Amino acid sequence: MESALSLVQDHAATRRGRRVTRVVLRIGELAGVDVDALRFAFDVVSRGTVAEGAAFQVEEVPALAHCGECGRDFASDDLVFICPTCGAPGGEFRSGREMELSRIELS
Q1: pTM of the full structure
Q2: Which pLDDT belongs to residue 25?
Q3: Which residues are 14's β-sheet partners?
Q4: In what order do the strands lie in the sheet with 55-61?
Q5: CB-count burial class (<10 Å; 0-12, 13-18, 19+) for 24
Q6: Domain containing 81: what range?
Q7: Number of domains forming the structure of the chain
Q8: CATH code of 47's domain
Q9: Is the Cβ–Cβ distance between 38 and 1 less than 8 Å?
Q10: Whole-angstrom distance, CA of residue 61 vs CA of residue 48
Q11: Exposure string over 83-98, b if 16+ CB within 10 A, otherwise e
Q12: How far is CA 66 from the centre of its chain?
């Protein structure tokens, strides 16, 4: 959270924002992140900064797998998966593990 706040503060400084009003993070459902703990950490590390009191929002990113056999992307919340189209096992995840700063709103 400290790294994300550093990015927020840098962005605010370059845009001459006096106050950060909202911070939005995109977090994949397989990222292993406790959103409540992240929210608490944001409240703690943002104290005394331009982001203090800003709304903290999380956009959840679903886990999408890609089948190497038929080329289809499909939703999967399991680390071991079978393609629902061709039945091929395995593949790779295309989304669902990310944690990224998505949006910063300033006043």
Answers
A1: 0.82
A2: 97
A3: none
A4: 55-61, 20-28, 99-106
A5: middle
A6: 2-106
A7: 1
A8: 3.30.2320.80
A9: yes
A10: 30
A11: beeeeeeebeeebbee
A12: 20
Which residues in the chain show pLDDT less than 70? 77
pLDDT of residue 77: 66
- Lay out the sheet containing 73-75: strands in order across: 73-75, 64-66, 92-95
CA distance 27 to 38: 11
CA distance 13 to 20: 10
DSSP β-ladder status, 55-61 and 20-28: parallel
SS (H, E, C) the chain: CHHHHHHHHHHHHHCCCCCEEEEEEEEECCCCCCHHHHHHHHHHHCCCCCCCCCEEEEEEECCEEECCCCCCEEECCCCCCECCCCCCECCEEEECCCEEEEEEEEC
Q: What is the pLDDT of residue 69?
A: 93
